[in-house]
UniProtKB/TrEMBL annotation:
Name used for this protein in its record: DUF1553 domain-containing protein
Signal sequence coordinates: 1-24
Any Pfam family: PSD1
Biased composition (Low complexity): 519-533
Taxonomic superkingdom: Bacteria
Signal as UniProt keyword: yes
Species the sequence originates in: Persicirhabdus sediminis
Keyword entries, A-Z: Signal
Length: 572
């Protein structure tokens, strides 16, 4: 790229005049006061009034905000909404054509229709399979050691259940009551996905996955009580390499007493599998542990902040910020027969979800009480897929051992990767979880200097910008219709049209970037020798005419600046 790094960095700052409002990301982490949005930002990022009535979710959220005298954010506009909903539901970004079609659609129910469409898409299945594979520790290598064949079996099973929208209580029941080969009965890999196979190790992953609780905060007695339900679970190797059988081996005692986490007791006769009793207790509609955990986790995934936060660290000294809201979501899930898509749909259609990310308060409690949409950097997998789609490039993966590579097509999208052992330089740098514990905090969204240098000045980014089919197309269009080319660039990268100020800045940069043409006729008139003048004219034309790729270089620089903006890197 002819423009130097410093020039592009300056352009990135200049082009993003209105994007300073997205420093609310800094505000969220530091609780610094949010700057007052300029009028141009109002037009770019949010609407002045709501077009839908408040839902029950909204009434509960806004009632809590009123108690604390906190003003909620304005509604996000359609451009912000379409990008946000694509990222949150599918882990992908909308194309420029999809954005234009949505913005031009006058229907009042277009947001609800788009939510339904995306919830039924293959990309939804892929992205939410990724989320659940993080929670369920789907990983071939140390310290989980499911091995490649087990990973493929387990990931396919998880994906199938999400695609079929299996009731969540049945999903939990299938995992907790699984028996058989880890290669042939995929669900048993749940019990193999801990860092150990002891009853206490199993109790730890059960509590984390289905109760949102960490047993290191429990008393030893309570851990042992939960572990006793899994004390008859055994593991046996077979003659097939890495195959393991998970099975129930009844205790020799005629009768045994068990204590559930809520303190209630049960006596089981000899031969009975205590896992059945525990599972029946867990998924009972009156059990707050089960519904509270999944409702809080889903709220966290969609809103960026748990009602109980962290969302997988539920304990008495970590209360809900809005107990009435969490109770309502739990009741809705039970009433919907544990249909998770129904829960997604209700949250996504709410005003609370569709608020702007630009806060209208400097109150430190605004994020925890959902006074605005929480800014967060894109997941590593989502970001690299977007960059590779833009640049028409392919990610280079690696693994500690070569076995997993047998299962990966060369052009595999990163959000469809089954195995947590398979990674890349980019995924490691941008905080992809290791899947060693199943903790939500394994995924890292905090930016650092290595990420900034990669995006601004790496060879990989240079190649993507130079080889992008979108850049090639828009570079040709920029010769005759530069404003249209710049608008298309914004639509494809930021899912919106540029503001007037941004268009002027981009056009000025393009004009400055292109070499100025000299007045050859004036040169000729000053030269008395017509033959010499003609020769000079030809030389001047060759020397000063813009090169064929001058528009491409200008468009590349503008694209690079947009990609390095917080608006591209964050879901807002």
């Amino acid at each position: 790229m002819k423009a130097g790094t410093q020039k592009v960095a300056t352009l990135a700052l200049t082009l993003m005049v209105s994007l300073g409002q997205l420093l609310a990301e800094e505000q969220i982490s530091s609780n610094a006061p949010a700057p007052s949005p300029a009028p141009s930002v109002d037009q770019i990022y949010h609407d002045s009034e709501w077009k839908t009535p408040p839902s029950q979710i909204d009434q509960l959220v806004f009632a809590e905000l009123n108690k604390h005298n906190i003003v909620s954010a304005q509604p996000c506009n359609d451009a912000v909404f379409i990008r946000r909903i694509y990222i949150d539901i599918t882990g992908t970004m909308p194309s420029g054509q999809q954005v234009k079609a949505f913005l031009q659609d006058p229907a009042s129910d277009k947001r609800a229709r788009l939510i339904d469409e995306l919830l039924d898409s293959e990309n939804f299945t892929d992205y939410w399979t990724l989320k659940w594979c993080d929670v369920l520790r789907v990983k071939s290598e140390f310290p989980i050691n499911l091995w490649p064949k087990g990973v493929q079996s387990y990931q396919r099973w998880i994906r199938q259940q999400i695609q079929n929208n299996l009731r969540y209580d049945e999903f939990a029941r299938a995992l907790l009551l699984a028996n058989g080969s880890n290669f042939r009965q995929a669900e048993v890999n749940f019990y193999r996905s801990g860092q150990g196979h002891s009853p206490a190790d199993i109790a730890e992953i059960v509590a984390l996955t289905f109760m949102g609780s960490r047993t290191d905060r429990w008393s030893e007695e309570n851990v042992n009580q939960l572990a006793s339900f899994f004390s008859q679970l055994k593991f046996k190797q077979t003659q097939e390499w890495k195959e393991e059988i998970v099975f129930h081996q009844p205790a020799p005692t005629p009768q045994q007493d068990y204590i559930f986490p809520d303190g209630s007791k049960i006596s089981l006769a000899a031969g009975e599998d205590p896992r059945i009793a525990f599972t029946n207790w867990l998924v009972n509609s009156d059990n707050q542990w089960f519904t509270q955990s999944i409702c809080n986790r889903i709220w966290y995934w969609l809103m960026g902040q748990g009602i109980i936060h962290p969302a997988d660290d539920i304990h008495p000294s970590n209360p809900a910020s809005n107990p009435a809201l969490l109770e309502y979501l739990q009741n809705q899930l039970v009433n919907a027969d544990y249909d998770l898509k129904a829960l997604y749909r209700e949250i996504l259609n709410s005003r609370t979800y569709q608020q702007s990310s630009i806060a209208r308060t400097d109150d430190a409690k605004s994020t925890a009480l959902f006074a605005h949409y929480a800014l967060r950097r894109l997941d590593a997998e989502v970001l690299i897929d977007a960059l590779n789609e833009f640049g028409n490039t392919v990610e280079n993966y690696w693994s500690p051992i070569p076995e997993p590579f047998t299962f990966i097509p060369k052009d595999n999208r990163t959000i469809t990767l089954a195995d947590g052992s398979i990674t890349s330089q980019f995924l490691d740098m941008f905080g992809r979880p290791s899947r060693d514990t199943g903790y939500l905090s394994e995924r890292e969204h905090t930016p650092n200097e290595f990420q900034r240098l990669y995006l601004l000045n790496s060879q990989q980014m240079h190649v993507r910008v130079r080889t992008s089919p979108l850049i090639r197309k828009l570079s040709q269009r920029a010769t005759a219709k530069p404003e249209q080319a710049i608008s298309e660039l914004y639509l494809n990268l930021l899912a919106r049209y540029p503001s007037e100020d941004e268009m002027q800045i981009a056009m000025a940069y393009r004009a400055k970037h292109l070499p100025a043409k000299t007045n050859n006729q004036q040169r000729a008139n000053k030269n008395k020798n017509q033959a010499a003048a003609a020769e000079k004219k030809r030389q001047n034309n060759r020397r000063t005419a813009p090169p064929a790729n001058a528009n491409a270089i200008a468009i590349q620089d503008i694209a690079w600046a947009l990609i390095n903006s917080k608006e591209f890197l964050y879901n807002h």
